[in-house]
Amino acid sequence: MGEEVSLYASAYAGLAVRERVRRQTYGDDLGQSGWLTVDELDRFGDWLELRAGARLLDVGSGAGGPALRLAATTGANVVGVDILEEGITAATELAQARGLGVRARFVRTDAGERLPFEDGSFDAVLSVDAMCHLPDRLSVLEEWHRVMAPGARVVFTDPTMITGLVTAAEIADRSAIGIYAFSVASVNEEFLADAGFELLHREDLTENMATVAARWREARERFADDLVADEGVTTFEGVQRFLGACHLLARERRLSRFAYLARRGSG
Fold first, then answer.
1. Cβ atoms within 10 Å, residue 137
2. Are 250 and 256 in contact (CB under 8 A)?
3. How far apart are CA 247 and CA 10, in angstroms?
4. What are the phi and psi torsion angles at 4 (to 5°)?
5. What is the model's pLDDT at position 168?
6. Cα angle vertex 114, ends 44, 117, to 5°?
7. Phi and psi of 177, rounded to 5°?
8. Which of 82, 117, 153, 214 could form a disulfide with 121 if both were Cys (CB 3.0 to 4.6 A apart)?
9. Could you give the CA distance from residue 82 to residue 111 in angstroms, rounded to a whole number?
């Protein structure tokens, strides 16, 4: 295992160069630090059937860009949770700057623990590429079930599904970024059912992960000098190895990314 690299915390510093990296990576810049693209986010909003006044919980909200886009485009009220203070600070400032401070708030909390919300608080839950960082997945889903209203919908993506042979070195390239839980396809379906959810749809998003990983790595290489000055050589090189491994594994379909849409039961 190599030295741990701070991918997410570093994303909230050196904002000028990171904006340029994101524009070249995604085209439409949501302020994201992952595989999410605008077309995916809009599709997820449709799956969740968001409407004006709906209560949306975004688990692993990062700097808040995706949650704020959904608040602006659907009229939903959004609460985002993230473990990094840098993300919460950036998201709160962005909400104020966009005039969404009344309908969007962000709370620092560990999504692997009990959430600081009452039973039935939300009409929808969204979690993009955060589930892979939460090893106790069944407990996480049970907690989402608790804070959701009966009939509410949830969408989450899992970008670390083993669908081929993966070496220890390739796992290490990802694990150096932080905690990762790798799974097989049947695990998410089983845990959703055990937690009281009905699976409505599953979609393969692996090709998008491979494309974004390659673009992200190339964009960072283009602005290498500025990024090294901001985040240091160790983080820069570690993130580049991580993105290279993600691209290779996704392109060869050895590591896959899927989205899940499910509905909370009445129980």
1. 21
2. yes
3. 21
4. -65, 140
5. 82
6. 70
7. -75, -25
8. 117
9. 7
Report phi then psi at 179, rounded to 5.
Answer: -75, 130
Provide the CB-side half-sphere exposure for 25 (13 A, CA).
30
Question: Looking at the domain that runs over 7-264, which CATH code has it been given?
Answer: 3.40.50.150
DSSP 183: B
Q: Are the C-beta atoms of residues 68 and 98 closer than 8 Å to each other?
A: yes
56 close to 122: Cβ distance less than 8 angstroms? yes
Given the structure tokens 């290779």, which residue do they identify? 248
Amino acid at 159: P
Please classify residue 27 by burial: count the beta carbons closer than 10 Å to its beta carbon, then call 0-12 exposed, 13-18 middle and 19+ buried: exposed
Phi, psi of 77, rounded to the nearest 5 degrees: -95, 130
Domain residue extents for the chain: 7-264
Walking along the chain (267 residues) 10 residues at a time, the average pLDDT comes out as 49 72 89 88 97 97 94 97 92 94 96 97 97 93 98 96 89 67 89 97 96 96 92 88 93 96 88
Which amino acid does the sequence have at 86? E
Dihedral sign for Cα 50, 53, 54, 57, please. Answer: positive
d(CA 198, CA 154): 10
Closest by CA to 256, choosing from 187, 197, 200, 193, is 187
Longest CA span, the chain: 55
Contacts of 106 (CB under 8 A, 6+ apart): 61, 64, 67, 79, 80, 81, 82, 87, 88, 91, 92, 95
Taking Cα atoms as reference points, which of 90, 50, 47 lies closest to residue 71? 50
Q: CA 131 to CA 112: how far, in whole Å?
A: 9
